[in-house]
């Protein structure tokens, strides 16, 4: 049924301007330039977590600008109106009973008062940094009414040095105010548009909706931890490591950048996992050589997966009067990644991705970071025998990436370039933003051994004419940022017309045969999947990953013969895809990632019954029948493609150490 909508582009434009203008009015980009090292405690660095309950208010005014007009950041939020208690980290959407808040579009305001240790304030040689792990989507941050940061984009961290502000009046409690706007525009990532409905016979005055073309709920709020951390005023700003192997020697090429001084003494020590020093170096760049190296191996490919060294950087420098010392310890996994025309090599051995696509998504907290959920998901991934996942469709929390490093779970790291379907989202402003998001993503994740490939987008309209320049530029830029990892994007376009595919290193293709095409007809899968693979490989002679495939299953719905939405149908679809994978993986198919690990929430629509049900686990992480099928398969694949340690040999349980 067609909905009669009045699309008023000029108003859409005004809305977009309001978003950016308020940012301009309230100060430019004050965000710290430079590195984005994960805040770790050390002898010279402290952390203060600000997770917990914050004061919260949505701004429902017609132009959503009341908070700026009335300067809500200037005084405690409770003095300018009613406030709710809101957990951080969490999406705000599912926390209350208020349908307005669940589907809210526009600015929401968070506030928290913090007691800052007086030592941090008194010692002018201490930098105090406020870090926001992820705020969806556009944020402005004030401390005691002074703007300290502004950031565009969810899923990635940003920070600000707030020392100057909190030292102005040490008697004042530090009040942090964060305004977050979830509006998606033609140039945001993901993109979206606002449609205003002006037909007063159908819609109330001022009615508008947010449109976007991706299949997950646009959860919003402070999704990851907000914290304060300290460094000395001369400090390790960034570290880049690139690793290589020569016979049994591991090479760790490193570069450290320092802020606050032009010269510094540096001592770099590499420790093994027992804390024994295995290599040292002086200087801000160099190569550490590790004899008899323990390589970083994927889970189920080696009996000691996820081996991490610790690279300790000790810095000592003077500002002319005082000497400052800084210590930062970076986990380092030594491994190589290479791609041939038919293989993906990790440490020069063929690696087959048998994994999942995920979402950051759960009941109540939406996209909010939740340790119980993270650990449960890793246990399920290992139970399943999966060795990899893709961060569909945006960067996941750094804490998750660190788990991948430790457990040997291989990651295809995707940026939020999802739903790029409108030709107006291929323009220069969109591209410039996309490039800077890749800057931020590579900056954040470049040192994770688990990350083996960047994905710059999911299912863009790659057949449109501007896609050629767009993806050529984007992929080239990403390769300049990181020369060690392959780059891809995920396609569902026609192999002959896809304008971005010539630039990728690995073809990643999504297909839903017998679901979105030929629904109910599983018999078409073998022929259509075979054609898909032959077409792509025939044209590009590049290795292929089936980056999505699957079918919805309502848990507990059974049918024999199988019908769509039953658990049996989901299993059968998977099995028929697997038969083709088994033939093609002898040649050039290098991986399969099920869509999806777990059921997840979407916006409401006639094809979704309380969200997307293609999970092999429910949203509450209980297995559907397909999970057992996949478990059988993945452990069998691990046995044939990996070097299995005795404790993991199928079908033994993980606890069996015989
Ligand atoms: C896709 C998308 C994914 C959707 C999935 C589906 O191709 O990449 O975001 O959720 O299909 O289930 O429709």
TrEMBL record:
Keywords annotated in UniProt: Glycoprotein, Glycosidase, Hydrolase, Lysosome, Signal
Glycoside hydrolase family 2 catalytic domain sequence ranges: 337-638
Localization per Swiss-Prot or TrEMBL: Lysosome
Keyword Hydrolase: yes
A GO term from the CC aspect: extracellular space
Residues annotated as domain Glycoside hydrolase family 2 immunoglobulin-like beta-sandwich: 234-335
Pfam family, one: Glyco_hydro_2_N
Subunit record text: Homotetramer.
The protein's name in its UniProt record: Beta-glucuronidase
Organism: Knipowitschia caucasica (Caucasian dwarf goby)
